[in-house]
Design brief:
The protein is an alpha+beta fold. Helix content is 25%, strand content 33%. The strands form 2 sheets. Strands 1-2-3-4 form a 4-stranded antiparallel β-sheet.
C-alpha cells in the first residue's frame, strides 16, 4: 500500500507473495513454516524513492493492522508501533476526533542484530546509503478505514512480484 502525505511525499509498505513449498530447494536452508505466525512475506518498504526490499513477519503485519483498528475505534494504543527490526515505525502525533496525524518513518541507520558488518563500495559513505526518512500523514476516519481494509487485503492476497 502507498501512504500519500499532504506534501506529495509517499511511504510504501507493499507485501508480496512467497512460495514456501520450494524454499529449501531455492535457498538450501531448512525452515519450519508450519507456524503461520513465524512466516514472513517479502516487502518493499520506504519513503519517497528510497525503497528497500526486505521481509516481514506475518505477526508484525497483524500487529500493524491491530494498531490501526485500535486507533479507529478509539481504543487506548501505544503512540508508537515499531516493526522490521525497529527500522519502520508509525508515531501517533495527534489524535483528534475528526482526524489523526501520523509520522511514518523508515530508518535504515538502525543496526539489525545478527546482520554483522556492511560492505560498501569504495568512496560510498554509510550516511549516503543508510538514512532516516519520515513523512507526516493526516488522515480522517474514512481514510483510516481504507488503510485497515487495504492492509488486510494485502495480507490475505499479497501481490506477485
Amino acid at each position: 500500500m502507498i501512504f500519500n502525505a499532504t506534501n506529495n511525499q509517499t511511504a510504501e509498505f507493499t507485501l508480496f507473495e512467497f512460495n514456501y513449498e520450494n524454499f529449501e530447494e531455492v535457498t538450501g536452508l531448512k525452515w519450519d513454516f508450519t507456524n503461520g505466525k513465524s512466516k514472513t512475506l517479502p516487502i518493499d518498504v520506504g519513503i519517497g524513492t528510497d525503497i528497500w526490499s526486505s521481509s516481514i513477519l506475518i505477526s508484525e503485519v497483524e500487529k500493524i493492522i491491530n494498531w490501526f483498528e485500535g486507533l479507529s475505534i478509539g481504543k487506548e494504543i501505544h503512540s508508537k508501533i515499531l516493526v522490521l527490526d525497529n527500522q519502520f515505525y508509525f508515531d501517533l502525533l495527534e489524535n483528534n476526533q475528526n482526524f489523526k496525524i501520523l509520522r511514518i518513518t523508515h530508518d535504515t541507520s538502525v543496526h539489525v542484530l545478527g546482520i554483522g558488518g556492511y560492505s560498501l563500495p569504495p568512496g560510498v559513505k554509510k550516511e549516503d546509503v543508510f538514512k532516516k526518512l519520515s513523512i507526516e500523514y493526516k488522515i480522517d476516519d474514512e481514510e483510516l478505514e481504507k488503510i485497515i481494509i487495504q492492509l488486510k487485503e494485502e495480507l490475505a492476497t499479497p501481490k506477485k512480484k
